[in-house]
Description:
The protein is an alpha+beta fold. The chain has three domains: 37-46 and 301-358, conserved putative lor/sdh protein from methanococcus maripaludis s2 fold (Beta Barrel), CATH 2.40.420.20; 50-58 and 216-299, Beta Barrel (Elongation Factor Tu (Ef-tu), domain 3); 61-214, CATH 2.40.50.100. It contains four helices and 22 strands. Strands 2-11-15-13-12-16 form a six-stranded antiparallel barrel. A four-stranded antiparallel β-sheet has the order 3-10-8-5, with no helix packed on it. It is elongated, with a radius of gyration of 43 Å.
Amino acid sequence: MLKKIRNILLLVLLFGALIWTFYFLFQKSNQPPETFKTVSPFDTNIIKKTVATGSVTPRREVNMKSQVSGIIEKLYIVAGQQIKAGDIIAKIKIIPNMLNLANAENRVNAAKITYDNSKLEYDRNKLLFDQNVISKSEFQVVDMRLKSNNTELEAAQNQLQIIREGVSKSSGSVSNTLVKATISGMVLDVPVKEGGQVIESNTFNEGTTICSVANMGEMIFEGKLDESEVGKVQSGMDIVLTIGAIDKASFKAILEYIAPKGLVENGAIQFLIRASIKKDNAAFLRAGYSANADIILAKKDKVMAIPESVLQFDKEKAFVEIETSPQKFEKRFIKTGLSDGINIEVLEGLKKGDKIKLPQLAEVKA
């Protein structure tokens, strides 16, 4: 009985599988055949390029610093202002160092005592010389001593005045309490305020920056290029800059510097590059704008090209499938040239009217 039931179930399963197979074949025979779109060769410009990221910066930017330490009594500039070399940008009020002040005062006192003594000696010897009691040579020694002590007193007094006021009598109108611009240009930044303290610039200290000034008429691009791309570029190549802050505008530049040594950044070797920007665009370039540089490696205008996505390869030889009759295609080997990653130049093997099989997911960009 069990054997009979099992045989019946097997027959039912076989019958069902047979019916499903006939149904599947019937459905497949009724499906429309797969069709492919085609594309023909077209004329276009092909530019092979590599991209570097960086920023726009003035070629020459100078930080203005004070020659004395003290408090900013007055600022004469604001960011964005145009100034000329020699313009006064700030006035510094001297806050003397108490130790230096005490030493300078002691030096003046000592010099004054020495001078007074030599003056008394001079007066005595002058009287004796006038009476022909001493010789001229003896009097000259006393006279030279008085002049030397007077010079020392004046030097000590000048030093004391410089420590107190930042200017001496001998300097006249020249004062290092007035900070002057060393170049002409635009004030980019004023990081200090009136009443703020500044430290003088010297051999051991960079000093406090009062403002930074740059010539905004001469701008450059500074960026980083990956080591895989740096071997493809060389000085003199054309660059097209796109700046995110300036819509629908590009700037031409010339590559002028490639660093001979790379730096490790985020696990990759990067090389510094620099390019001079041609100011043929009316847009104002601000220092610090981020920019992308398209470095043009090669360029061809109005060449016959096809989408690179239609290319296929047989033993490293490129070929495409040409339509010979409706939805019938044959393989044709071709010779290619310059590529920009989207379109590729065709040197041999195709003509304008040919229809090339386009893969279903491929896109055409001319």
